[in-house]
Write a structure and sequence with these properties.
2 domains, alpha/beta, 6-stranded mixed beta sheet, UDP-N-acetylmuramoyl-L-alanine:D-glutamate ligase, single chain, 8-stranded mixed beta sheet, Protein-Tyrosine Phosphatase, Chain A, 17 strands
């Protein structure tokens, strides 16, 4: 048993030694021992290669604007571990973390003695979230973000009201498969019997997989650009504007998050909110949707952390995310001097991530950070072809120099690993 918050988080992180353990057998065993808290939760399940967190936060703010306390389970965290479980954007308390860990420890120890082996870190945290929202702090709706894939992800013990699949790209191929169709199959694993599905999957192969799985599960499938549409209207001062077309009518919205791709994520949230209203009788008025989309904010996604000169954090940690960042640079910062500070993990598809980045910026600083799988700057440099990159040995001094020396025409975008952004964000927000 643990007696302090630090001991509790330390015990959770100690489970990292077990690595990623696909499969639901351990989760199902723990759910049975806890008398099935997963069956007591009204949830929306969100999977996808990119945009899960943004879609979740758009929907969360819509529901909050409609008057509903909304639980969230997300990963990873940017500043404090508690962020992973929250209600209305407020992280779970240290005391609640301790209480949950002391509930889970005996189960983990008992499970260690079985042939299944002990639960992984992510399984422990998922179990904590399910128990928390079912028994300690029930709310009208909980938004669950998938950790990896879908079919064998530990969150897949829930039976949600709606499944959302944002998009599908080539990420985590060592676990999910090396084709779009194989990855789509894993993500389609969250589709449940008779429960509607909303998706922005764009590739024909991925769409065919989802259509087939939805038919197999008797689940209504709502597909972007078939059943509802998004028409991008252009940037706002600190966000984007778009039209949403569905069910024979057009609605206009403005979001407070930067990037054309965010209008697609917002449209998924609108489609999900419509289903919650029509099928599950949540009282969500049009004004709540407008207010929620405008208020939505997700740290680490074109997250402006310094005004003049502008510094943004963007978690472009795979090829699709990097392409979205490049599109944003082209549309919003074309007349600006754009610098990049980049750090990434060794196991990412670095060649695909950076091949077009150099062409769209003034210079790129390559750096590293304290993390077991972080690539060093020299390794990163091998993937850059143009003479616009340089090694940054001390990223803290680099950022501070940018803040002091650059004028308002300059923009710095810190990108790559979300773990890197976590370290950077805590430092920048402490600057005077």
């Amino acid at each position: 048993m643990v007696n302090t918050y630090e001991e509790a988080v330390g015990w959770i992180h100690s489970r990292l030694r077990l690595g990623i353990k696909p499969g639901l057998s351990r989760m199902e065993w723990m759910m049975k021992k806890l008398n099935h808290p997963e069956k007591e939760i009204k949830a929306v399940h969100i999977a996808g290669t990119n945009g899960k967190g943004s879609t979740l936060t758009f929907l969360r703010h819509i529901l909050e604007s409609a008057g509903y306390d909304t639980g969230t389970f997300t990963s990873p965290y940017l500043e404090v571990f508690n962020e992973r479980i929250g209600i209305n954007g407020r992280p779970i308390s240290d005391e609640e973390i301790m209480e949950l860990v002391n509930i889970i420890i005996p189960l983990a120890e008992e499970l260690e003695e079985t042939e299944m082996g002990g639960p992984s870190e992510f399984e422990v945290i998922t179990c904590m979230a399910l128990y928390y929202f079912a028994r300690m702090n029930p709310v009208p709706v909980v938004l669950f973000e998938v950790g990896l894939g879908g079919r064998f992800d530990s969150t897949n013990v829930i039976d949600p009201m709606i499944s959302v699949i944002t998009n599908i790209g080539m990420d985590h191929t060592q676990f999910l498969g090396n084709t779009i169709e194989k990855i789509a199959f894993e993500k389609a694993g969250i589709i449940k019997e008779g429960k509607p599905v909303v998706t922005a999957a764009s590739q024909t192969g991925a769409q065919n997989v989802l259509i087939s799985k939805a038919a197999e599960k008797n689940a209504d499938l709502f597909l972007l650009n078939r059943d509802f549409e998004v028409s991008y209207k252009g940037p706002a001062e600190e966000g984007e504007t778009f039209d949403f077309f569905g069910k024979g009518k057009t609605r206009s919205y403005e979001i407070g998050m930067i990037g054309r791709h965010q209008t697609e994520n917002a449209s998924l949230a609108v489609a999900a909110a419509d289903i919650l209203k029509e099928r599950y009788f949540y009282k969500i008025e049009e004004g709540a949707i407008q207010r929620g989309l405008a208020a939505a904010y997700w740290p680490g996604r074109m997250d402006k952390v310094n005004q003049k000169p502008a510094i943004y954090l963007d978690g472009a940690h795979n090829p699709e995310g990097m392409q979205a960042l490049i599109n944003t640079i082209e549309t919003r910062f074309r007349k600006k001097k754009v610098s990049i500070l980049f750090a990434a993990l060794k196991d990412k598809d670095l060649q695909s991530m950076v091949s077009d980045l150099e062409k769209n910026v003034t210079d790129i600083g390559l750096t590293t950070f304290e993390f077991p799988r972080a690539a060093n700057p020299e390794e990163l440099a091998e993937y850059f072809q143009l003479d616009r990159h340089h090694i940054v040995n001390d990223w803290e001094k680099y950022i501070e120099a940018f803040r002091i020396e650059e004028d308002d025409s300059a923009v710095l975008i810190v990108t790559g690993s979300l773990y890197f952004l976590s370290a950077v964000r805590s430092k920048i927000l402490n600057y005077s």
